[in-house]
Amino acid sequence: MSISCTRNFFERFCVEEYNIDTIKHSSFLSADLLPSLGARINQSTKLRKHIISPFNPKYRAWEMWLVFLVIYSAWICPFEFAFITYKKDALFIIDNIINGFFAIDIVLTFFVAYLDSHSYLLVDNPKKITIRYLSTWFAFDVCSTAPFQPLSLLFNYNGSELGFRILSMLRLWRLRRVSSLFARLEKDIRFNYFWIRCTKLISVTLFAVHCAGCFNYLIADRYPNPRKTWIGAVYPDFKETSLWNRYVTALYWSITTLTTTGYGDLHPENPREMLFDIFFMMFNLGLTAYLIGNMTNLVVHWTSRTRSFRDTVRAASEFASRNQLPHDIQDQMLSHICLKFKTEGLKQQETLNNLPKAIRSSIANYLFFPIVQNIYLFQGVSRDFLFQLVSDIDAEYFPPKEDIILQNEAPTDLYILVSGSVNFIAHVDGQDQIQGKAVVGDMFGEIGVLCYRPQPFTVKTTELSQILRISRT
Amino acid sequence: MSISCTRNFFERFCVEEYNIDTIKHSSFLSADLLPSLGARINQSTKLRKHIISPFNPKYRAWEMWLVFLVIYSAWICPFEFAFITYKKDALFIIDNIINGFFAIDIVLTFFVAYLDSHSYLLVDNPKKITIRYLSTWFAFDVCSTAPFQPLSLLFNYNGSELGFRILSMLRLWRLRRVSSLFARLEKDIRFNYFWIRCTKLISVTLFAVHCAGCFNYLIADRYPNPRKTWIGAVYPDFKETSLWNRYVTALYWSITTLTTTGYGDLHPENPREMLFDIFFMMFNLGLTAYLIGNMTNLVVHWTSRTRSFRDTVRAASEFASRNQLPHDIQDQMLSHICLKFKTEGLKQQETLNNLPKAIRSSIANYLFFPIVQNIYLFQGVSRDFLFQLVSDIDAEYFPPKEDIILQNEAPTDLYILVSGSVNFIAHVDGQDQIQGKAVVGDMFGEIGVLCYRPQPFTVKTTELSQILRISRT
Amino acid sequence: MSISCTRNFFERFCVEEYNIDTIKHSSFLSADLLPSLGARINQSTKLRKHIISPFNPKYRAWEMWLVFLVIYSAWICPFEFAFITYKKDALFIIDNIINGFFAIDIVLTFFVAYLDSHSYLLVDNPKKITIRYLSTWFAFDVCSTAPFQPLSLLFNYNGSELGFRILSMLRLWRLRRVSSLFARLEKDIRFNYFWIRCTKLISVTLFAVHCAGCFNYLIADRYPNPRKTWIGAVYPDFKETSLWNRYVTALYWSITTLTTTGYGDLHPENPREMLFDIFFMMFNLGLTAYLIGNMTNLVVHWTSRTRSFRDTVRAASEFASRNQLPHDIQDQMLSHICLKFKTEGLKQQETLNNLPKAIRSSIANYLFFPIVQNIYLFQGVSRDFLFQLVSDIDAEYFPPKEDIILQNEAPTDLYILVSGSVNFIAHVDGQDQIQGKAVVGDMFGEIGVLCYRPQPFTVKTTELSQILRISRT
Amino acid sequence: MSISCTRNFFERFCVEEYNIDTIKHSSFLSADLLPSLGARINQSTKLRKHIISPFNPKYRAWEMWLVFLVIYSAWICPFEFAFITYKKDALFIIDNIINGFFAIDIVLTFFVAYLDSHSYLLVDNPKKITIRYLSTWFAFDVCSTAPFQPLSLLFNYNGSELGFRILSMLRLWRLRRVSSLFARLEKDIRFNYFWIRCTKLISVTLFAVHCAGCFNYLIADRYPNPRKTWIGAVYPDFKETSLWNRYVTALYWSITTLTTTGYGDLHPENPREMLFDIFFMMFNLGLTAYLIGNMTNLVVHWTSRTRSFRDTVRAASEFASRNQLPHDIQDQMLSHICLKFKTEGLKQQETLNNLPKAIRSSIANYLFFPIVQNIYLFQGVSRDFLFQLVSDIDAEYFPPKEDIILQNEAPTDLYILVSGSVNFIAHVDGQDQIQGKAVVGDMFGEIGVLCYRPQPFTVKTTELSQILRISRT
Fold first, then answer.
1. Is A467 helix (H, G, I), strand (E, B) or coil?
2. Which residue from D132, D59, D141 is spatially nearest to D99, judged by alpha carbons?
3. What would the pLDDT profile of A307-357 be if each residue is shown by its tens digit?
4. pLDDT digits (tens, 9 = 90+) for C90-101
5. Nearest CA in chain C to A309
6. pLDDT, tens digit, for every residue of B94-121?
7. Which residue of B has its CA nearest to C267?
8. Three-state SS at C51
9. Nearest-10 Cα torsion for B189, B190, B193, B196
10. Does the beta carbon of C296 lie under 8 angstroms from any beta carbon of chain B?
11. What is the CA radius of gyration of chain D?
């Protein structure tokens, strides 16, 4: 239970962290739904009866279902607004079913616990939940769910009136769920940042294209003189063509303008359309700049690792060629750099150094204690001393044929071989002689360290080896 | 009084800092108005009689009012220049009232003290103020305020002549007030950098669109053959259409060109218009590049915190999974990283380290002295020693269930619990036994430090705790 | 043999490193061909009979030849698809010859060893090679090579049918070879990163333009009413014009849309074309943002060195002018900075510091041992001690007329002159007197260090000198 | 003479540094002209008779004059190529005069010393100069200067033939002088990097527009059917209109395409024009991306200082408000940060730390020795000791009302007041009493340091003060 509790706590932090960040950028988004960061959810905290945890897998599935409905709403809303002149039965029914789901969600929200942002505790007091919801999104949610069209039928109004259409646009308020989903996914390292970001940008672009197309069509549709409209100038009898053709034309106009291609075959013909176009183009300017800015950001981040690798290798080879180092040393340098880039991420070492001492000790203890325990030199040593020794150990990978110790070098460290194998080579009478071999679990360099003499051998790896280094204490 | 004086001083620096920066970028802007950085203004320095401080709240309100008038001028100037063929009475009167306000400001400036950029002192000597103003902006201000049109009426000229129109464009000189306002707001951390920057870019874009539209219309209006103009080719009788229609058409052309959409329904028809268009498009190329450059800059800055968080968490989890660390340690690592990102800004630690020692001591003293004073270990210790001890204290947050001290670890630090609670756990006979609890104000780790023995207990937080660490001295 | 083995190993790492990176970005690319990083390939590992090493120069030439064929295929595929209504004999034969080459490659692949990504060993077991190939790309390769058109002739089908055309588009699968080539070249420091990147971006752009042009033509060609197509509206009898004219027109339309110029002389006329255009413009938006992002990335990297140089020089000169330093010191500062930027890359020092101790010792030993050995002070000293001393030596360049030691300075280092020459200058009775000269191989500063007295002379370089510094041990 | 020699040397480095950099980026540019970096040129090295130094002010003036002529050539070359059908006398003469100047320069180059890139010495051996020039740019220079048109007149050819026109385009080779000028200016810190970069980008853009316009006109002019050309379709009798109108129309088309506005009123009408347009648009795509990339780079650099300031202030104020620090400390923190940003550039401290020890000592000695000499505490101390002491001194600015020493603080440093004034305040019986004052040249903090006691007073600045800090040695 204690582990699940920790996780739970961890989740709360992430949510909070996320909240802080979002609020800074835009006050629209709310993030009281799911924790981010890919924490393994295992919520076992007991809540009151009839109160649902926001981390409940079933509740999450329900939320994903709502997000799916929201996407449908976002598409159908402007479309109905512009193209559908009389309510078709099927659409009418589907709309109301969807409204029904959202109505259920409003009711449900009164039974969902929430995370208090100060105490990091799940609040399951029904009164507090109610007060919080009523004072925040309740009004908006109700407005975006209210079935204005059926209501209008009751009062014998004509459902296709502009007023009701505009009211039905309130359903777009539901989009906040999608934006909060994206904000959460961006923090979640289980997902690729690049694709999340791209999907978000593409969604925004598509939605902008769709909305602008629909709205522009509506303006043309309502204009008194159909021949003086952007679509009527080219297709004089556009109101008779199929819905599909009109929709594609509207989208085509919209995307031609958004990408600033501007063929000009369809263009505003009257001041009303010009005004709309002015605002749309201003918006496009911002959107394009935002897309490019994001793409640049992603490209820079993408290539930074390859860049850094290239720069390091270039620096090493420039140094080597300027100083005419022998090929032997040059190869060792390059293969060491390659190995380092492969085995270590860019920020790994830095991240570990910033952890508190106790965690670092736990890690070292877990990783190195069993190995060090079996070293003959440490047989009689007390557990406590070993425990302290282990905290100071560094692990490193060495590519094959790399020197670890040079003969006659000042002894500063003691090495333990964890994997791979090394040769002891002594330079005697101008020739390199292999004096011995160390296998996994062996220790070397201890003669120098203990007797305080220069290293008697050169130690060279023969294959990829992992080696622990204990500095002389 | 001393505090207000410090603040006053602080303001002056900011103004100066701001000046330096602006001058580098463009020599147009002047920044002798308000201090930046959101300093709480509390100007109490006595000035001579009849001399107003530039930090006087009333004078600032006056300046904001002038900025408002400037924005109106910036809009009406090109508009009158291009569209208004005969002076309408209302506009004529409004223009002259506004001119009146700016005339008052010119007179007022002779009574406003200024900040000397070398001594950082408010100069209230009327002679010096006069000399400084006369030698800098006075001539420009007078030219941009002089009522050329009323004067022309006196001499029986026709007010719609091109010469006078161009003279009235001098009023755009007033825009320097707006640009200096933006430069100041960018430095002011009370405002969101992103929105300031966006507003500035949008303002510049709108002003460019407005000016280009007006000027392009003027060229068409003046061209001998109205059918060979950009607007006349499409609307042959454009001079008879309403002012609103003509203005919207001009704006529409302007923004179509600026966003490079270029539908082509309105396009230059004669060399004069082509020439204007060439210059406008060159300008647009630069403006678009500038907009995108700024947006990229903002996006990169925006996402840098999320990025850094993601990279750190990814590095930690990669390390954990590669070394197959137990879940317990993994959770501690991740929750510690989350907490760190939440409690500390990116540059906070670095900023504090760069402060001089006396300030750092003051802060430590203010924050930790009352706590340390009550520790039983320090009961008999002299105030002076405690004072010095306090300077070396570090405060850190620990998430719940995190180990602070591991059993058998080498003792290096001594901890004081400020908030939260911790358990002492001893690993006896293969089982973890809770040996005790520490509450707020308790100290732990002291046995190890004082007796120089390995820590006898593991110390684990049970809730979010703030802990002070004193290194062994 | 051992060196070649190391290199071989090194190659493997690079391949692996490269794999990791590619997989992250897109799972399409495979990189089992050549090692990157410009390693001097000298593969001498013995493989089984009839098994070819992937690093075999002949095999690489074969691969380059295939890449060349792929480029041709990538161009001809969409072109045939759209423009060629009946199979011309020449093209038919060329296509099948190319297919033949790729068929040979499929067979060959069964005899090429591969690098195991876990053990970093070349696997030459024919069974394993077969299993691996069958389970990965085999199916795709066969599909992209199968001669559908000749097969169709066998069964008396008409080769120009749309179905077979689409099948022949499978040949584009071969493009993965090109993308894997680019991914490898980007890692290879023998090539300029900028040009590789540019070539890649231009290739992608050209291919997009070509494909879109061909596909758009096909839509027009197939549309029932040729006058209601993008090309037919302008050239009503376009089907009779020459192939060249039609291809240029298609390309022209394509690039006009891609660059968002959008003249509008050719534009979609029917919903089918509009739909295609919508997708193409969405793609263009992404591609343009990607191009700009890459260019920004390259420009930033390009200018970073000049930037850094400018900033450093500016910081130095600002400091000098603010403190009114004499010209003498100012010149020394600036020339030292210039020299440093010339002799050292940006990351060189950092790179060297990250190498393991043994490699650093090898380098120092190789570079400095012969020089130090000849110094009179170290004549009687043991080889071992010298060996350890050499590891601590720093080498630095000094521009002429720069002070290395100031008279009366605290002695901390001992210097050895490697190239150039220096003067000893003593300030006696208010005058600078040249007391001596040191030539290559001389040591100076030793009086101060050994006797622990302030330096008796100022030491000034007379020409560009390289100097070793040994800190007092 | 020695100073001028150093400078001379310094210049050479800069030239070399610049060479390295340029060669990497593009092999077109040569940089053997002037040194960069704004070195005060004072070339006094004696050269052989009749040999001119490249740093000779007169030679530089000559080069600037040639650059001016090159700009004219760059404009007139494509213009003549496209628009001038028969040689007008004035142009013909001017062209040949300009050719004459360049012919003189070719002769002159044989007498100009050059910098050897290995030895950094001016080579004034006429043979070496001749060999170097003949083997590098000589052939190109002769080709770009040869008066093909006058020659053609000799042989009775018609000067307007296409062949000779293309030959006259060789004159564009001269542009390498302009690009090398820009490369040099970018390194020169006397000029604003932003404006140099902008001018370069604008020049390239204008040249591209001009060339494309001229070339496109030539294609139309040569096309057999004038009505099927981009200009003929709109102005059927375009060959009769004035040169000015045709040139403006060509430029207008060119810039409409470059900015991707693409009105479409002028667009390619035949395959030849389409082909040209395809290449121009591909080029535009690259150029636009390059412009935006550069602008982003500049914007990021521009705003980095304001950014860094904002981030630091924000970090400080967040810390203060979270810990509810008293206003007193908060003000001290903020004003210290402001002052630091004002007095120090971003990289100043870092730059100084990278200088060698001797230069740092010289600077410290120059700045602080006179002050320290007059301190009463150091009256009897030897010059040598003071000299060493001075090297360890740090100077810092303190804003007014800032604490430098706190009462009871551990004494670690000793302070000397250079400018401003400070108060000694003792906290006695719960009240702050001013115990004394220090004026310029006084020392404080010495009681604590010498007697090793806690500081007896708080020391607070009363105005902006510069203070030297000597750490306890």
1. strand
2. D141
3. 777 777 777 777 777 777 777 777 778 777 777 776 665 566 677 777 777
4. 777 888 888 889
5. C187
6. 888 888 898 898 888 888 887 766 555 6
7. B263
8. coil
9. -130
10. yes
11. 34
